[in-house]
């Protein structure tokens, strides 16, 4: 289980860094075009790897249904709502709303996947959420607007997509499910991305920008997607989602190191709360899990005697 937690931490570290790289890339490409082209390169990478390793499998009707649902909800609806929401919602407010995703995911997992939303997970979620509010900015007034509602939709669709992925991996290998779901999502997003592209849109011709786009697509969306979906099956959706609270902390740290962004005392304190929340929700639960085999052994010995 420790190995799974480290792999989840690896994914979240890259995804947190992605906020910094994304802020650089969004100045070079239109947002929805950027999201779609990155998905294209991710899909090409995954499809090539699947072809070389001969991992392709026949898709059952139920799996097709989940893949289409994932493409519509997890990619088309999520990306469209997110980038359109950012047009009228500041990044701090958007981050505050998106920081609710781990808790919403854990609740959905308890409802649809029958995963336990334990007391420790609840306490850890609250601590991590409090820390997230500190990291992304205390006092950012949340006013109900179209942009805010779109970011809420983006947050909910992201949480829902994690539940769909978990259901999909019950019958399909996590790797090939990632390949198919990413490809289907790209197919759905591409028409929307190009229909919203007009003649005034700025598309960079800089080599560094395209290189960063391709590398982040392969590593942060391709490889991390594979690793994350594999570990969902091991750790559980609710616990894995709590690790997402580390993203603002990583983004803050990488922003400080690469861009020289200022880090306040409140943000540093919030980061400690985030880390504490993740530890409470995962490490202590792992200790309890280790006790479980011992209890089973004791019960077996009692029955046998």
How would you describe what is shown here?
The protein has 305 residues and is mainly alpha-helical. It has one domain (2-304). It has helices at 2-25, 31-52, 61-86, 91-98, 101-112, 119-136, 146-168, 174-195, 207-235, 237-242, 247-259, 265-304. Helix 1 (2-25) packs antiparallel against helix 9. The longest helix has 40 residues, at 265-304.
Set out the fold topology.
Elements: H1 2-25, H2 31-52, H3 61-86, H4 91-98, H5 101-112, H6 119-136, H7 146-168, H8 174-195, H9 207-235, H10 237-242, H11 247-259, H12 265-304
Helix pairs in contact: 1-9, 1-11, 2-8, 2-9, 3-7, 3-8, 4-7, 5-7, 6-12, 8-9
- Unreliable parts: 289-305
Report the span from N to C terminus.
32 Å
Net shape: globular
Number of separate helices: 12
- Overall strand count: 0
Radius of gyration computed on alpha carbons: 20 Å
Which class of secondary structure composition applies to the elements? Answer: mainly alpha
Task: Please give a quick description of this structure.
This protein is an all-alpha fold and 305 residues long. It has one domain.
């Amino acid at each position: 289980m420790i190995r799974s937690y480290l792999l989840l931490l690896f994914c979240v570290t890259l995804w947190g860094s992605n906020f910094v790289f994304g802020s650089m890339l969004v100045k070079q490409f239109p947002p929805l075009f950027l999201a779609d082209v990155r998905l294209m390169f991710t899909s090409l990478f995954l499809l090539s790897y699947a072809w070389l390793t001969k991992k392709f499998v026949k898709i059952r009707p139920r799996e097709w249904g989940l893949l289409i649902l994932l493409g519509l909800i997890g990619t088309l609806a999520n990306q469209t709502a997110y980038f359109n929401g950012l047009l009228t919602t500041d990044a701090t407010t958007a981050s505050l709303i998106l920081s609710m995703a781990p808790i919403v995911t854990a609740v959905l997992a308890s409802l649809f996947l029958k995963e336990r939303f334990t007391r420790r997970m609840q306490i850890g979620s609250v601590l991590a959420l409090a820390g997230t509010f500190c990291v992304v900015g205390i006092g950012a007034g949340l006013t109900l607007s179209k942009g805010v509602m779109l970011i809420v939709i983006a947050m909910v669709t992201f949480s829902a997509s994690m539940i769909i992925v978990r259901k999909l991996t019950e019958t399909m290998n996590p790797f090939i499910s990632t390949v198919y779901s990413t490809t289907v999502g790209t197919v759905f997003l591409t028409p929307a991305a190009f229909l919203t592209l007009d003649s005034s849109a700025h598309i960079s011709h800089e080599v560094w920008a395209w290189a960063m786009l391709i590398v982040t697509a392969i590593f942060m969306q391709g490889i991390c997607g594979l690793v994350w979906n594999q570990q969902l099956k091991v750790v559980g959706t609710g616990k894995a989602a709590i690790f997402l609270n580390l993203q603002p902390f990583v983004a803050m740290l990488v922003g400080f190191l690469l861009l020289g962004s200022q880090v306040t005392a409140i943000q540093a304190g919030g980061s400690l709360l985030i880390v504490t929340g993740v530890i409470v929700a995962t490490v202590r639960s792992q200790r309890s899990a280790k006790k479980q085999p011992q209890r089973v052994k004791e019960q077996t010995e009692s029955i046998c005697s």
